[in-house]
Amino acid sequence: MQLRTLGGTGMQVSPLCLGAMMFGAIGNRDHDECVRIIHRSIDAGINFIDTADGYSRGESEEIIGKAIKGRRERLVIATKFYATMSDDPNMRGASRRWVTRAVEDSLRRLGIDHIDLYQLHRWDDVTDLEETLFTLTDLVRQGKIRAFGCSSFPADRIVESHWIAEKRGTQRFRCNQPAYSIFNREIERFILPASQRHGMGTITFSPLDGGYLSGRYRKPEDMNGENRFAYFGRITGRGFDPYAEAVRRKLDLVAELSALADEAGISLAHMAIAFVIQHPGVTSAILGPRTLDQLEGLLGATDVRLSAETLDRIDALVPPGTSLNPINDMPSGTTKQALRRGDAL
Q: What Gene3D superfamilies does its record include (predicted)?
């Protein structure tokens, strides 16, 4: 794979990043298979691995730690902080008190002496961003992390973070990690331009839109049973109805996109991933396989180059800057009701 520069860090990363959210209790509980997935991705040319302390309460980081022994030097290891890690209300968020503890815990679980990219998983409404930026800058100076970034920040918060860093003399976020797919193109309007303007890398997640663009689901009945849709329905408390109008709309579009992929002689999944990494503002797209077979089905996407005609036809189905998941990139805790009341300002 041809490597790309991650923002202004100088670090070279592969256009595909192995995401480890599905390693551990919430996904694949077989540690040995997870290790095989990591090794296969490295052998295929992926040098970038992304996880978070909140993925199965640290279990994902522990699995990565097992897998990268003897291979660490050629890898760029990224993890995130913010998630609730215990019943203690102070063991979460972006406070100096917690971040200085969380980084030590992640280093221990990963079995490494430094983290290449340490990311704030979500905007923290109760901690001044200045406090977090000073803390992260200190961690860079101590050699515990090499660079830091943010995740799911909207454009205005990205701009605010750079303003604070300039005024207060801290280092700044070097990358952002938003959701981006054919079905979720909202970041094209403001988030990608803001990141590019400030020299930030963009590491996108969910290029298959949580599985819709994998090619596996063609009708509502295909989505019954245990899968990611059911899992996220449970953890968000919103449930999941495969017969809902929004789901049917996506499945109708899947049929049209599948036909387009067939015409191009590629799989729907490869087309979806190629669409993401072909955007000039995207550094790397995170793949989140749960099994080795799933990984194998995605690896060839870097060999795909979509034609202008194919991109135009995708635009006709899902126009640039629009989204079928408009709530994805709102700040943490934001709801449509909060936006109406002004609570999100």
A: NADP-dependent oxidoreductase domain (3.20.20.100)
Kind plus residue range of the DSSP H or E element containing 148: strand 145-151
Closest CA to 278 of 153, 212, 192: 192
Cβ pair 162, 198 in contact under 8 A: yes
User: CB within 8 A of 136, min separation 6: which ones?
Assistant: 99, 118, 120, 145, 148, 170, 171
Model pLDDT for residues 51-81, shown as the tens digit of each residue: 999 999 999 999 999 999 999 999 999 999 9
- Structural domains in the chain, sorted by start: 4-340 (3.20.20.100)
3-state secondary structure of 273: helix
Distance CA 284, CA 117 (A): 14
Residue 245 in contact with residue 310, Cβ under 8 Å?
Answer: no
- Residue pLDDT, tens place only, 212-270: 999 888 888 777 776 767 666 655 556 677 778 888 999 999 999 999 999 999 999 99
Low-confidence ranges of the chain (pLDDT < 50): 329-333, 338-340, 342, 344-345
Asked whether the CA dihedral 215, 219, 220, 223 is positive or negative, the reply is: negative
CA distance 279 to 274: 9
Catalytic residues, which ones? Answer: 55
Q: Is 265 left (phi over 0), alpha (psi -120 to 50) or beta?
A: left
| Phi and psi, residue 76, nearest 5° | -105, 115
Q: What's the pLDDT at 1?
A: 83
- pTM, rounded to two decimals: 0.92
